[in-house]
Amino acid sequence: MAFADGDSSSSSWDSDDEYQKFIQKMNPPRITIDNTSCANATIIHVDSANKYGILLEVVQVLTDLKLIVKKAYISSDGGWFMDVFNVTDQSGQKIMDESVLEGIKDCIYKSIAPGSCFLPSRRRAIVEPSSDYTLIELTGTDRPGLLSEVSAVLTNLDCNVVNAEVWTHNKRAAAVIGVTDRKSGLAISDAERLCRIKERLRYVFKGRSRDAKTTVAMGVTHTERRLHQMMLEDRDYERYDKDRANANPIPMVSVVNWLQKEYSVVTMRCKDRPKLLFDTVCTLTDMQYVVYHGSVDTEGPEAYQEYYIRHIDGSPVNSEAERKRIIQCLEAAIERRVSEGLKLELSTGDRVGLLSDVTRIFREHGLTVTRAEVATRGNKAINTFYVRDTAGSSVELKTLEAIRQEIGQTVLQVKGHPDHPKSPAQESPTRFLFSSLFRPRSL
């Protein structure tokens, strides 16, 4: 495969001169969709003037639209970006609805068109202003019951959690939490109160080996990208050999230099899963590497990714230490989202303190949360938890039944436990309404 030499100047990625703007304006993105050439996938072609971060933006849009990328071909040498994605819906089917296809094209175009607010520069903040809620970012040492303690502190400080995402990996934890004031339902802006919230949460998140980090901002963010950044900054990729003994199968990641073309070639093989492509591209971008060419194949149980990269300054990998760091960071990016534990889904009417009560029950029954997604839609709470016992073992059936009896048999659903029966279809969703949670609490 012959590749043209790319621009090795970092200014080509961050330039804001009038000529660069003119080129982008005269060459607007072209997104075309082909539903005839492939029998089992919809093909999306993206052509655009090149810009640092554009690949991540396109992959991010596809991921947010819940499309599954089966294959991809990437080429972005020089001033032009050309990508081909073979995608399906979540059930593995081609997308045939014309209105959905037009929506996909529109979302991609808006995300990379001249004047769009995507993240083309290393200098651009990922947080944008919003008055709906206050964002709290936390990183620190993971331990059993951590989410329960954090949510209890927020409840005691009169904060209502409207959304949250929590990741744990390699004994580290990161969380992005959106909160509002309990009484007003608005974002919290009082500087003294925000300082008090930060200090209390930092104390809870603080571990023995490293200090915790707490950030409060008025804004909205792409949560999953921010979590990758936070865990990367927290060096969750550092792992001792003894920790590997109990780890999941290690992804196969290699980095070699192609000296004739001054590229570094990154290859990855691992078990396929949703959002894998986003996770790896996100990490390479945030480590300030540019993907000039690449191919992705996930048709089967194993995913294969190959990228020809250079650092943003135009150089290939130039030391053994840098090569090892890329491998470690990509392994971590692949592993962070791997769900360790049993999946529990909670759906019920939202109220202040709900997250605190639910996670307290998990903790009291000896469970720890390894990953969590918390959302509110209207007046309803839609939460997903991945849990395991504190020893790292699978959750016993009797423990699950005790938790569901306390929370509500139809409120909390168990997903994927081999011995757990499905809930009876005729069971009324109002039969169990958090009876123990709504009882008056003793003072």
Overall spatial form = globular
Low-confidence stretches: 6-16, 119-125, 424-443
Listing every helix as H and every strand as E from the N terminus to the C terminus, the arrangement reads: HHEEHEEHEHEEHEHHEEHEEHEHEEHE
Kindly estimate the percentage of residues that lie in beta strands according to DSSP.
Answer: 25-35%
**Whole-number radius of gyration?**
23 Å
Amino-to-carboxy terminus distance: 73 Å
Biggest sheet overview: 8 strands, antiparallel
Number of helices: 12
Mean pLDDT equals 85
Helix-residue proportion: 25-40%
Q: Helices and strands: which structural class?
A: alpha+beta
Can you describe this structure in just a few lines?
With 443 residues, the chain is α+β, with helices and mostly antiparallel strands. Helices cover 29% and strands 30% of the residues.
Write up this protein.
- This protein is of the alpha+beta class.
- The protein has helices at 11-14, 18-26, 54-64, 98-112, 146-156, 191-205, 223-233, 241-244, 276-286, 320-336, 354-364, 397-407; strands spanning 30-34, 42-49, 68-75, 80-88, 134-141, 159-169, 172-181, 213-218, 252-258, 263-271, 289-297, 302-311, 342-349, 367-377, 380-389, 412-415.
- The protein contains 12 helices and 16 strands.
- The protein is globular and about 60 Å long.
- Residues 6-16, 119-125 and 424-443 have low confidence and may be disordered.
